[in-house]
Design a protein that fits this description.
Layout: E1 19-24, H1 31-42, E2 45-47, E3 50-51, H2 60-67, E4 75-76, E5 80-81, H3 88-94, E6 113-120, H4 131-138, E7 142-147, H5 152-165, E8 170-176, H6 181-191, E9 195-199, H7 207-214, H8 220-223
Helix pairs in contact: 1-2, 1-7, 5-6
Length: 225
């Protein structure tokens, strides 16, 4: 029998978490798609504090806004918006921008908040702050996004181990790509974690397909009863 990890999902005062922090096992695993699905499924607000790569694309905030059909009042702008498609630390250095990680604070919202990270857990934000440190500071449970395909078990278990070594709460894993029952079962068994959903490869990426994928996710109240 698999024992899902449920510890740490509530704040020390017993209150329900204000939302989740979406991180990935790697870059390009589908964090933005999953963030859009969560925002749609949970009627949530969205915030990507650190955006890079803006010289090549409009960024994840307008993408999630369109895909999840979010009204403007539920979208919080990035704290830092950087041009180069690099880690926040490297992109900021190129632009002579000093990221003040201590000043990053969750925006006020009266609904669940979906916070999207940059890359994976060990992506540097500054010289001595990594994404995993931001997760610890924000105090939000993690939704870990992973590929469904070969190699995902290793990457997912390593990421879960890093989170648990810090005592950080894991709300669950979302798998992206062709359904793979074996990989799902292995991640749940060996990672002692709940796979919240498997999002198949979508025929196209728009608000309609995101709404259909969002329906695969459990409700916020069932994840945090």
């Amino acid at each position: 029998m698999t024992h899902h990890i449920a510890y740490g999902l509530f704040r020390k005062d017993g209150a329900q978490p204000r939302g989740v922090f979406v991180t990935g096992t790697d870059t390009g695993v589908g964090k933005t798609l999953v963030s859009a699905c969560l925002a749609r499924a949970w009627d949530a607000a969205y915030w990507k504090p650190l955006q890079t790569g803006l010289k090549d694309e409009p960024g994840d905030t307008p993408t999630v806004t369109a895909l999840a059909d979010l009204p403007a009042e539920r979208v919080h702008p990035p704290a830092y918006a950087l041009a180069e498609p690099l880690s926040p630390h490297a992109a900021a250095e190129l632009e002579s921008v000093a990221i003040d990680a201590d000043a990053l604070a969750l925006p006020d919202t009266d609904r669940p908040l979906v916070v999207e990270g940059a890359g994976g857990l060990m992506v540097p934000v500054t010289e001595d702050v990594f994404i995993i440190d931001l997760i610890a500071r924000f105090g939000l449970p993690v939704v870990l996004v992973a590929r469904s395909t070969l190699g995902t078990i290793n990457h997912t278990l390593l990421s879960l181990e890093a989170l648990r070594a810090r005592g950080l709460a894991v709300a669950g894993v979302v798998l992206n790509g062709p359904p793979n029952p074996g990989n799902r079962a292995a991640i749940e068994r060996f990672g002692k974690v709940r796979v919240l959903a498997e999002i198949p490869t979508l025929p196209r990426l728009d608000a309609e397909t995101v709404a259909e994928a969002a329906a695969l996710l459990p409700s916020f109240d069932s994840v945090f009863p």
